[in-house]
């Protein structure tokens, strides 16, 4: 297993209308010792320029897309962006790609059919465009996608999954591939308000079959998915509490085999404000 890495997954970096604010936040994370910044590639036709803006505005912190949708961007355009970033900032940009969700894809007018086959074809396109496997990572939950991540990328970037899934993913991809799960957290010592914040976030993902089908494999049921998530589900997915309590929840993923945990601090649905205080507290507790 590679060196343990502590990273950040935060929608602020794509949502912020201010390039300077995004770069300022990234610079602080770099100074705090975080290893990489992950954020969504959005659903445009090309990779969002914000990834390159943050690379250009910082010194050494990694930047990764979590994820670029294989239904919205062509392999050749994505590969060109990643190769250009690699030339300018060697080793710092990691392209995360994923199959997204039927409701998102079909909402944009595209038929969501055979996502595994689509991913294989997309990886073929990245190969043809010359993007090496070690510069890309797959959003992977189920066994087949995890095996594909093992065989044709640097590793796997699961999202919205418990530590038990991290252990399963490690077994599936083997010891030599990068395993970098996203883990949402709430830095709030009040369990009532912390769980309310967690449920506000979880309710969005519990409406997506890709996630609920994966959670069923770990013993969760429709009762756990109702009302934004049962206490059992919330506690398994989203570490809450003070910084030390959250750190203990993150440790479960490292113990299960994660090389890197991408921490998403939940900010009550406010994607336009960077939760700097929480990341400062977590840096002291985790890094």
Automatic annotation (TrEMBL):
GO molecular function: oxidoreductase activity, acting on paired donors, with incorporation or reduction of molecular oxygen
Top-rank lineage group of the source organism: Bacteria
Residue ranges of domain Luciferase-like in the record: 18-126
Pfam families: Bac_luciferase (PF00296)
Any one annotated GO CC term: cytosol
Matching PANTHER family: CONSERVED PROTEIN (PTHR30137:SF18), LUCIFERASE-LIKE MONOOXYGENASE (PTHR30137)
Name of the protein in its database record: Probable F420-dependent oxidoreductase, MSMEG_4141 family
